[in-house]
Amino acid sequence: MSSGGGKKSRELFELAKKVTPGGVHSPVRAFRAVGGTPIFMASASGPRIHDVDGRDYVDYVGSWGPAILGHAYPEVVEAVREAVGRGLSFGTPHAGEVELAEMIRRMVPALEKVRFCNSGTEATMSCIRLARGYTGRKKIIKFSGCYHGHSDALLVAAGSGALTLGRPDSAGVTEGAIFDTLVLPFNDLPAVRAAFEMYAKEIAAVLLEPVPANAGLILPEPGYLQALRELTQKHHVLLIFDEVMTGFRLGPGGAQGKYGIRPDLSAFGKVIGGGMPVGAFAGRGEVMDYLAPDGPVYQAGTLSGNPVAMAAGLAQMRVLAQGGVYERLEELGRTLENMVCDEIRSAGAPVTLVRLDSMFCLFFQGPESAVRNLQDAQRCNTRAYGTFFHRMLEGGVYFPPSQFETCFLSAAHGPQEFEITQKAIREALRPKA
Ligand SMILES: *Cc1c(COP(=O)(O)O)cnc(C)c1O
């Protein structure tokens, strides 16, 4: 297969760098973790994505999660077309907001009230403010390796040692902004117990990705989420699930449905917007009612609940609610897993596949140590991943341009895509002569 030269992409990237920092509007798109220059896409349909250089890829990024039905799903596209004709934004309440909120509530029992916003970042940021306003406490616990968007208080990754106060992860985030953020290792209950002992009455909330999917894909150990629920309840601390990635992805009830946990608040994004910029946070009515205009916690958005975005979300969620999609995704996931594991085995490659339903990740390290937390994930051979990524591109398969991202299947993937993927993986895992 020809590499295509990537001429147009390269030209566009040169122009982009002149008008935009790093040439991209979100850093991971810049290919810094894998080398090379980003590919500019022209269109996407079903399980495929098409670049401006005339090449076609089997897509396992799915716009970083939203494209669960595949790209440009006809009913979603049609709903958007129809909504656009009625006006792009009203700045007033409208029926679409009520319909989508009702649908979400039907799918996830813990969500009594819902507020829409425009991104996952806004959703988690608002959950934290709400939790602090509701409890009258300041501190929050987050876990290293869990990503919750780029608001200041949450832009902290690893603390050295369980109870170290977080350090800023980004220039421009002040010590003050993260002073009340405690960072603990994931899958480590003693660390949480110790933090509760030390800061007993100061902790407002425990915030986590129930299935961390921003440091590769890390699974919660059996009983871990349940224990967090019990501990937080005992200490009157709110439990917040960041389901921006997992919501309506791991089954209709998200991770909370899958593991049978009822968090106090949940944050959503990605799938919920059908590809449009939508975020939402939701949970116990008593807590949600602390939000303005009923309560003292201010939160707002000029374009929140945007009618076109709501229409896209509704159309996608209707298909998901009808049933059948999650069963198909699990079946596809199992087929892909078997195929990839066969290829890894026959290549004798030091690679481990982690999969949960339609989410998966290839860790470039041997199977001898399971990846339980960020520290484990960081032992991966990121250079080997970079090589693999570029070989996959050559074989017509688009994986995320970083070892620390999760891959997504869509319901539109099928045998043809898997055939291309198998061929590409076989080449990609072959040791270089
Ligand atoms: C993507 C993501 C976010 C941030 O969402 P944006 O829409 O990019 O602001 C937050 N939390 C998790 C778990 C995510 O995967």
Structure summary:
The protein has 433 residues and is an alpha/beta fold. Helices cover 37% and strands 14% of the residues. The relative contact order is 0.16.
Describe the structure.
With 433 residues, the chain is of the alpha/beta class. The protein has two domains: 172 residues, Aspartate Aminotransferase, domain 1; 248 residues, Aspartate Aminotransferase, domain 2, CATH 3.40.640. It is 37% helix and 14% strand. It has 14 helices and 14 strands. Strand 7, helix 7 and strand 8 form a beta-alpha-beta unit. Helix 3 runs parallel beside helix 10. It is globular, with a radius of gyration of 21 Å. The two termini are 19 Å apart.
Any chance you could write out the topology, listing elements then pairs?
Blueprint: H1 7-19, E1 41-45, E2 48-51, E3 56-59, H2 74-84, H3 95-107, E4 113-117, H4 120-135, E5 139-143, H5 175-178, E6 181-184, H6 189-199, E7 203-208, H7 224-234, E8 238-242, H8 254-259, E9 265-268, E10 279-283, H9 285-288, H10 307-322, H11 325-347, E11 352-356, E12 359-363, H12 374-377, H13 382-394, E13 397-398, E14 407-408, H14 415-429
